[in-house]
Amino acid sequence: MSYLFPNYQRKKIQWVKGINNTLIDQDGKSYLDFTSGIGVMNLGYGDSNLNEVLSDQAANLWHAPNLYESKFQEETAEKLANGRDYVAYFCNSGAEANEAAIKLARKATGRSKIISFVNSFHGRTYGAMSATGQESIHQGFQPLVPDFEYLPFNDLDSLKQKIDKQTAAVILELIQGEGGVIPAKQEWVKQIKQLCRTTGTLLIIDEIQTGIGRTGSLYAYEQYEIEPDIFTLAKGLGNGIPVGAMLGKKSFAQAFGPGSHGSTFGGNNLAMRVASEVLERINQPDFLLEVQRKGNLLMKGLNQLALKTTLIKDVRGKGMMAGIELTDADVLASVMEQLKEEGLITLKAGQAVLRLLPPLTISDEELNRGVELLEKVLCKEQKND
Ligand SMILES: Cc1ncc(COP(=O)(O)O)c(C=O)c1O
């Protein structure tokens, strides 16, 4: 018997090693990774430079409580602010980062209503789950935190009707990840920002999946030409070391005064040293240009593939975050299984979307190999259909 709760649907694979963009299972079989451990391993596996930084800190001091100053937190926060007027709060996961964002928004505005969107995903804790616009995720856990409303994504009229001077915040992902790799429309996001400004509502952008270079800029919001009041990070920030962050405009700092919020492990030394190094590496113009170039290469390959099979209904995404909408959930399950057999690991999103989140360090050759495997499997699936 297993001594674990069965809350994850686990595949019968045990990963024993990761080298760059490749994973190796217990039988020694290699797999090209198009998942980055669900958007986490942006710099790939076994990076020697990150290993060195982690070992160096491990040899000195793993943990120091938040009762004392931390130069590593200060350094990482400054890099995250990236020249803008944000201050940071560190935690250990995406859900915790959103939890902090929701609390800050309510405290700073003195309002309670929060608007989020259908199909969104913000995490599994009560606040983050209540912000998540998916009934299947709420099931059995009611009552949720009160005063959350879910509106249709990319729809301006419903937002215009619902947002008012009682609204504390609007929270959204700029590309809905778990919901099916659905990009927000640029004009819609700009209008949200405008509506937030006129009603005194805070705009929270959940960058947990889209941030840290994933879409070709440090943060996806930069490509939408807006600045959020609050944004949240996790996943790629620690390249596998658990860490989350909530950033808010400096003007809200007072709302999170001493005693208002906290975490024992948040901003842990090991996490901060790694996060700081990750940012040093990813937030470089050349690195981000490469992500954009490789993202375009991937999209081009996928769009060409879409012309060769009727199993693909849509291809979408930005940078190294791609979604291939297939005809139905059964086709998706079969395709993912065959890809795994062929040595390519992929992800599901929404009902029938094949989600690809390769490490940002992946080579052109590996990207092309992945697209070739996709073509092989989809063409075979089409014949059997
Ligand atoms: C956009 C988004 N927000 C929040 C979360 C929750 O992050 P975590 O699983 O680290 O709590 C996720 C995780 O998939 C996510 O994709």
UniProtKB/TrEMBL annotation:
<keyword id="KW-0963">Cytoplasm</keyword>
<keyword id="KW-0663">Pyridoxal phosphate</keyword>
<keyword id="KW-0055">Arginine biosynthesis</keyword>
<protein>
    <recommendedName>
        <fullName>Acetylornithine aminotransferase</fullName>
        <ecNumber>2.6.1.11</ecNumber>
    </recommendedName>
</protein>
<feature type="binding site">
    <location>
        <position position="121"/>
    </location>
    <ligand>
        <name>pyridoxal 5'-phosphate</name>
    </ligand>
</feature>
<dbReference type="InterPro" id="IPR015422">
    <property type="entry name" value="PyrdxlP-dep_Trfase_small"/>
</dbReference>
<comment type="pathway">
    <text>Amino-acid biosynthesis; L-arginine biosynthesis; N(2)-acetyl-L-ornithine from L-glutamate: step 4/4.</text>
</comment>
<feature type="binding site">
    <location>
        <begin position="94"/>
        <end position="95"/>
    </location>
    <ligand>
        <name>pyridoxal 5'-phosphate</name>
    </ligand>
</feature>
<dbReference type="InterPro" id="IPR004636">
    <property type="entry name" value="AcOrn/SuccOrn_fam"/>
</dbReference>
<dbReference type="GO" id="GO:0006526">
    <property type="term" value="P:L-arginine biosynthetic process"/>
</dbReference>
<dbReference type="InterPro" id="IPR015424">
    <property type="entry name" value="PyrdxlP-dep_Trfase"/>
</dbReference>
<feature type="modified residue" description="N6-(pyridoxal phosphate)lysine">
    <location>
        <position position="235"/>
    </location>
</feature>
<dbReference type="InterPro" id="IPR050103">
    <property type="entry name" value="Class-III_PLP-dep_AT"/>
</dbReference>
<dbReference type="GO" id="GO:0042802">
    <property type="term" value="F:identical protein binding"/>
</dbReference>
<feature type="binding site">
    <location>
        <position position="124"/>
    </location>
    <ligand>
        <name>N(2)-acetyl-L-ornithine</name>
    </ligand>
</feature>
<feature type="binding site">
    <location>
        <begin position="206"/>
        <end position="209"/>
    </location>
    <ligand>
        <name>pyridoxal 5'-phosphate</name>
    </ligand>
</feature>
<dbReference type="InterPro" id="IPR005814">
    <property type="entry name" value="Aminotrans_3"/>
</dbReference>
<keyword id="KW-0808">Transferase</keyword>
<dbReference type="InterPro" id="IPR015421">
    <property type="entry name" value="PyrdxlP-dep_Trfase_major"/>
</dbReference>
<keyword id="KW-0028">Amino-acid biosynthesis</keyword>
<dbReference type="InterPro" id="IPR049704">
    <property type="entry name" value="Aminotrans_3_PPA_site"/>
</dbReference>
<keyword id="KW-0032">Aminotransferase</keyword>
<dbReference type="GO" id="GO:0003992">
    <property type="term" value="F:N2-acetyl-L-ornithine:2-oxoglutarate 5-aminotransferase activity"/>
</dbReference>
<comment type="subunit">
    <text>Homodimer.</text>
</comment>
<dbReference type="Pfam" id="PF00202">
    <property type="entry name" value="Aminotran_3"/>
</dbReference>
<dbReference type="GO" id="GO:0030170">
    <property type="term" value="F:pyridoxal phosphate binding"/>
</dbReference>
<comment type="similarity">
    <text>Belongs to the class-III pyridoxal-phosphate-dependent aminotransferase family. ArgD subfamily.</text>
</comment>
<dbReference type="GO" id="GO:0005737">
    <property type="term" value="C:cytoplasm"/>
</dbReference>
<feature type="binding site">
    <location>
        <position position="263"/>
    </location>
    <ligand>
        <name>N(2)-acetyl-L-ornithine</name>
    </ligand>
</feature>
<feature type="binding site">
    <location>
        <position position="264"/>
    </location>
    <ligand>
        <name>pyridoxal 5'-phosphate</name>
    </ligand>
</feature>
